[in-house]
Design goal:
By secondary structure, the chain is mainly alpha-helical. 74% of the residues lie in helices and 3% in strands. It has one domain: Orthogonal Bundle (ABC transporter involved in vitamin B12 uptake, BtuC). A two-stranded antiparallel sheet has the order 1-2. Helix 2 packs parallel to helix 4. It starts with a helix and ends in a 13-residue tail after the last helix. The relative contact order is 0.21.
Length: 289
């Protein structure tokens, strides 16, 4: 029973990480309909920025986390303006090809700048906290509560602010939003900024808990797509629940069967869901939130 509870806790923590990266992709892919395959590379970039700030400049971990989020959000905005915006009226295949090209370009740039070697952000939160017979590292607890805070903040922003309501309107009908005076170009920038910032946060934590290398983004973005497909494209609660389900599936599957195949479990779950419920658990977009 103790081992089972330990795996549940581990799954919830990993689910928090998956939720963070999936929320950013949900905003970009679910609302703007852009298959942003470079999202994982953006997360990796955010992790490298924080690693450089902490390792080379000696900046505090939390300050580096904030700075990395801001810098990566700005980079995301620039990417949207330079690459995706010029083809927003073109056939979807254009954005698809650009997304793949961006992923490859960013991975190679990260390899050139930081080398292909794995790196890790050293923190002072390596200690372990006992919750009965279950043990959790301090960094895992920080990740969980940071994720919880961000989810709550994003929910309140989308649901109750004027800007959030504009995002909901654009998600439902971009052309109608322009007719009623909503600046859709500005909304696109905001969505990319928020999405890239969320990706950076997930990248910083993955670099702190595990390790970071240039091609890690490929795995990260695939997991993010699994989460949002599982939860339902464009669904805010779907990304949260989907992230937790994937985290628990991998943790429990690794415990019951083998941790070597943890990626297989999440993809198998996605395939089963697509067969029996193609729209995902929550299916749809913000209009139903």
């Amino acid at each position: 029973m103790t081992e089972f509870l330990q795996q549940i806790v581990n799954g919830l923590v990993m689910g928090s990480y998956y939720t963070l990266i999936a929320l950013g992709l949900t905003l970009i892919f679910g609302i703007l309909q852009i298959p942003h395959f470079a999202h994982g590379a953006i997360a990796t970039l955010g992790g490298y920025i924080a690693w450089y700030l902490v390792t080379s400049l000696g900046i505090n971990f939390f300050i580096a986390l904030v700075l990395s989020t801001i810098i990566t959000a700005i980079i995301g905005i620039v990417i949207e303006r330079v690459t995706y915006n010029p083809v927003k009226s073109a056939p979807p295949i254009n954005a698809f090809i650009i997304a793949l090209g961006l992923m490859i370009l960013l991975e190679n740039l990260l390899t050139i700048i930081f080398s292909p070697n794995q790196v890790m952000i050293k923190t002072n939160f390596d200690g372990v906290i006992r919750l009965g017979n279950v043990t959790v590292t301090k960094l895992f607890i920080i990740l969980f509560f940071v994720s919880l805070f961000i989810v709550l903040l994003l929910f309140l922003f989308i649901k109750y602010t004027k800007l959030g309501k504009s995002i909901q309107a654009v998600s439902q009908n971009s052309e109608a939003s322009e007719i009623v005076g909503i600046n859709t170009k500005r909304i696109r920038l905001i969505i990319f900024g928020i999405g890239s910032g969320l990706a950076a946060i997930s990248g910083v934590f993955i670099a702190s808990i595990f390790s970071l290398y240039p091609s890690l983004g490929e795995t990260m973005v695939m997991k993010a797509f699994v989460v949002i497909i599982l939860g339902g494209l464009g669904s805010f609660p779907g990304a949260i629940i989907g992230g937790i389900i994937i985290g628990l599936t991998e943790s429990l599957g690794g415990w019951l069967l083998s941790s070597h195949y943890k990626d297989l479990y999440s993809f198998a779950l996605m395939i089963l869901l697509l067969v029996f419920r193609p729209q995902g658990l929550f299916g749809g977009d913000y209009k139903n939130e």
